[in-house]
Design goal:
single chain; alpha+beta; six-stranded mixed β-sheet; 15 helices; 17% strand
């Protein structure tokens, strides 16, 4: 039943994209394709989820990514004003080289690439990602898909509220009928980086030694949890942590205090800055900005994504705080944004190939069009196109096309 809902949702998403600002996927007749071009319809695309702290990669159609490469340091900072974008391109090229030729064992020239984009991913980073994939791996095309919509696809629903607890920021965005509501999007810096800083300060205060990032992340992954009750039972027990390569014992209360301080606790003066809102208050603000009908539809389908949402008790506590504001909040499970993108792209590919075969006896040549952010329409006649797809040749040869890379924020406004 769940798989039927997902397939029906994909069909609805395809119809919606076809009715949006650009035409939906159209195909060229196989008679107009060279033998090399025909291989493009056979090889499934590569799906990449390029986050700030790692890259998930796999082949479209798979239920989960084949590999997850975790970086020791963030790939890019939150503030890009003084950031060397060439350094990011070099690091990304090295990471993707390992993924392509040592893990996936594929030739990038025969594949399309689908990249999941966070709602707050800067245009500068999108252009750098496309530049690396096109120049160093010669991909046929790059398609940017919003991670929030893909998370809903893998959950088998068409509307919901996606809460992504990332490294730099936690983002909250409502999605209604597969349309992200970007004007209502909310963000807070209460995310992975701030949690690491709070854990590092707590361990340093208890041990007197500054822990490494690896030691901090080990504590986060294995020790932290969130209290269901706001009034915990006081305990004087200790637990061991490694700091600076040595073993120390710190109070067990640290396991839940750091989580409460990072995601749930208001500032001491109760005047948090707008970018420092607690996660529950951020969700409540986003829901209250919706209409009454949309609010009820979205609040009953809250999806949590990101590795930190796996902290035991955190989702339950966030929902409990939302219900205190008078909203009927309920969370649903999702296979994740990567699985949603994999499922959507694989089904879209099957749909396109089936249409190509149906046109085989009619010798019909069909072109596809895509509109850039400045309104310019480009036409492609070589193979099928998913909405939001960036063509390699035009990106490399046409500076205007490359400078106006596709942005989901513009199409939804």
């Amino acid at each position: 039943m769940a798989s039927r809902d997902i397939l029906q949702g994909i069909s609805a998403l395809r119809r919606q994209l076809s009715a949006s600002g650009s035409p939906g996927p159209t195909m060229a007749s196989p008679s107009s394709l060279s033998p090399t071009s025909r291989q493009y319809h056979i090889d499934p695309p590569v799906v990449l989820d390029i986050g700030c702290r790692g890259i998930r990669a796999g082949i479209a159609g798979a239920a989960e990514p084949i590999t997850e490469e975790v970086t020791e340091a963030p790939l890019y900072p939150l503030d890009l004003r003084d950031f060397d974008i060439s350094a990011f391109q070099d690091r990304l090229q090295i990471a993707l080289h390992t993924i392509y030729y040592k893990v996936l064992l594929i030739d990038g020239k025969s594949r399309k690439v689908v990249v999941l984009e966070n709602p707050m991913m800067p245009i500068k980073i999108k252009k750098a990602v496309a530049f690396v994939i096109f120049n160093y791996f010669q991909a046929i095309s790059v398609t940017l898909l919003p991670s929030a919509v893909c998370a809903l696809v893998s959950a088998g629903v068409r509307s919901g509220l996606v809460v992504d607890i990332g490294w730099h920021e936690t983002t909250v965005i409502p999605v209604i009928e597969y349309r992200p509501m970007f004007p209502i999007l909310g963000t807070t810096i209460r995310a992975g980086r701030q949690l690491c800083d709070i854990v590092a300060d707590a361990i340093k205060d208890a041990s007197g030694v500054e822990p490494s990032l690896g030691e901090i992340e080990k504590v986060i992954a294995s020790e932290l949890y969130c209290l269901v009750d706001e009034n915990p039972v006081q305990s004087s027990s200790l637990f061991p942590v490694t700091s600076g390569g040595d073993m120390y014992y710190v109070p067990s209360a640290l396991k839940w205090e750091v989580v409460d301080k990072c995601f749930l606790r208001q500032a001491a003066d109760s005047y948090d800055d707008l970018e420092c809102k607690t996660v529950p208050s951020l969700i409540v603000d986003c829901l209250q900005r919706l209409s009454v009908d949309s609010r009820a539809q979205v609040a009953s389908k809250i999806i949590f994504t990101g590795n930190l949402c796996k902290i035991p008790g955190l989702r339950f506590r966030i929902l409990k705080e939302i219900r205190k504001a008078g909203l009927k909040a309920r969370a649903i499970n999702s296979l994740g944004a990567w699985a949603g993108a994999s499922l959507y792209v694989s089904k879209e590919r099957e749909y396109s190939i089936a249409n190509i075969r149906n046109r085989n006896n009619h010798n019909i040549k069909v072109s596809s069009q895509i509109q850039s952010s400045n309104g310019t329409v480009y036409t492609s006649k070589n193979n099928y196109r998913v909405f939001g797809e960036i063509d390699r040749d035009k990106f490399l040869l046409d500076p205007e096309y490359a400078n106006n890379i596709y942005d989901w924020c513009l199409i939804s406004s």
